[in-house]
Specification:
- There is one protein chain.
- The protein is α+β, with helices and mostly antiparallel strands and 147 residues long.
- It folds into 2 domains: 31 residues, no CATH class; 98 residues, K homology (KH) domain (GMP Synthetase, Chain A, domain 3, 2-Layer Sandwich).
- Strand 4 and strand 5 form a beta hairpin.
- The radius of gyration is 18 Å and the shape is elongated.
């Protein structure tokens, strides 16, 4: 896996990251650090990537478990160290999983497997941050789309 990050110019603190898969993502700094608030901060991207990594796992595990999953949101709340390096010290993951007749024990198992075995990002961040998890299940009573 590769990524190239390029500063966009002499004014401001905007960077463009081009991933090995050919996608481009902008990042910017806070105005008090020379940024112009034009894009997410790099550490916000770390948090967002971790959320994407674990949500991907949860959906995949629930599908493989035969669950009728129709949605998965994860909200991450974090705290960082006050002094440099300002690593994450606490991260709470709250999942809202939507589907039909989802089994609570399988949702809990999927989250646990993601964080203990599959999600590389959360496993790395666990080295500095206390990780906690919670979830809610929302029964989706709508019929599946036939389109």
């Amino acid at each position: 896996m590769e990524c190239t990050v390029r500063w966009t110019g002499l004014s401001g603190m905007t960077f463009l990251a081009e991933t090995g898969s050919g996608h481009v993502v902008a990042m910017d700094g806070a105005p008090d650090g020379g940024g112009r608030n034009l894009a997410p901060r790099p550490m916000e991207m770390v948090l967002a990537g971790t959320g994407g990594c674990t949500a991907y796992d949860v959906v995949l595990i629930l599908r493989k478990s035969g669950q009728d999953i129709r949605g998965c949101d994860v909200t991450l709340s974090s705290e960082r160290a006050e002094k440099d390096p300002k690593v994450f010290t606490k991260i709470h993951f709250h999942f809202l999983v939507r589907g039909r007749n989802l089994k609570s024990n399988l949702v809990e198992r999927a989250i646990k497997l993601s964080h203990e075995k599959y999600c590389s990002a959360s496993i790395m961040l666990e080295k500095t941050a206390e990780m906690t998890h919670s979830f809610d299940i929302l029964d989706d009573l709508t019929e599946p789309s036939t389109a």
